[in-house]
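Record passed on underneath.
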Amino acid sequence: MNNKFTHLFIIFIGYIACIYSMLLTWDYFSELPLVFKVLICHIEATIFIYLLSVIFNNSSWYDAFWSVIPVVLTIMCWFDISAAGDIQRAFLMHACLLFWAIRLTYNWMRSWDGFSHEDWRYIMMKGKTNNKFQYFIVDFGSIHLIPTLCVYMALLPMIYALSYPGAELNNLDILATFLAVLSVIIQIISDQQMYNFRKNITEPKTMKSGLWHYSRHPNYFGEILFWFSLFIFALASNLSFSWLLIGSLIMYALIAIASVSMMDKRSLERRSDFKEYMDSTPPIFLNVFKKG
């Protein structure tokens, strides 16, 4: 346990240094439009964390990136002198984003065992490489850079709503807030149900109760719903931002296609009862009419 707290402290210091480097990068590119500054800082931060992953030989340095860096980027954007979005909408969006980030970061912290642990997906992906160049492409490209670009695209609705003048607070903002809060509550419940389940099993079995009865990945459903809520915030600001739905679609592809396929393939190999569960339960969306 002491090692875990020591390693978490090292992660904390690493991310503080990363955020400082982002501030320097932001100032250096101060004349660029906000959307480009966010992209450059996002990629620079990815490179920073990737280098720490290499130094520590553990790509799970990137795990906290998903929840921590979007909050930092949007705050930097909000405080930028050229940001012109509605102040009330900005408060609402940041409250929702912070709620989401705290949940995700907490869930990662309690399940991470320190530098002795690395996400099995990272190990599997890197294990399939045949040389150092392939290893670099997978480690930096597939594990670090591609997820960063997906999150950037999914974050664009919020960036646009912060950056450009838009309508005053309206019913779409209420809908977006409701969806965001609901998505995080779904994630909290499904996380806790899975956490309790894993604490009480001694052999590979499939979680089939609670929200997991209605979906194979209810936590992923909540994640997709959250990013969609940011798109609704953008629509509330300006209906011409409807093209930003592309960010939600990219996030859906990353989670519902890439992540789910890897998770399900592994479960089929490890759990004898998973095939029956897989055949009767949708991968993402909650089938509230499922009997059982």
